[in-house]
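The records we work with from here on pair a chain with its fold. Taken together, the tokens spell out the fold as the letters spell out the chain. The record below shows the convention in full.
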Amino acid sequence: MKTRLLLIEDDPELATMLVEYLAAADYQVDHAASARAGLSLARQQHYEVVLLDLTLPDGDGLELCGELRSFSGVPVIMITARGDELDRIIGLELGADDYLPKPFNPRELVARIRAVLRRGNLERLDPAALENAVIDFGPLQIDPARRQVTLAGEVKSLTGHQFDLLLLLARNAGRVMSRDQLMNGLKGEQAEAFDRSIDVHIGRIRAAIEDNPKKPERIITVRGVGYLFSSRQQRVD
């Protein structure tokens, strides 16, 4: 059975292109051109991901995201042409799982969809098995049980705190994590140890795992929001 998506987008040209592209990628897509129509479909049908434009003719996408969260835990990817980073932060705080600024490459949208679906699948695994599962990003592997990171078979040296930070980012691959979320995820003494030096630790992790730390492709800075761990090539063994 095909994965079913709901696209809430008022631009007819963009909507047509996305529906056709996603259909070719083996997704079933229902399209709504307004907030009211999108909310109605979301209440009537089961969807595995909602793609939500923030600027709609009859309502604000941020408000709609909040309404969706009042009755559904469906993953939401915001699609926005707004340049205001505050809108993106508010959207994430309202429960959106990811955001994608316009214009964007449809291939990236498919990657974001796969990432949120993969996270949902992981959440349904046995917690004990998931806790120690090796996270595989192609040449980069993170082994929670051994607390070891390897890149192309080479063991990389990280401090305990840096490993915990990398593991937290990797377990949320494809999702933007604010500094506060990272601090909250590193509970107790760990969070206190990081304080406001979290950017320094990110830099040292990049030096260990990025092919070019000055142009990172694994840990991406989202200006004004936080960090995004690229979900490309993720597998869990």
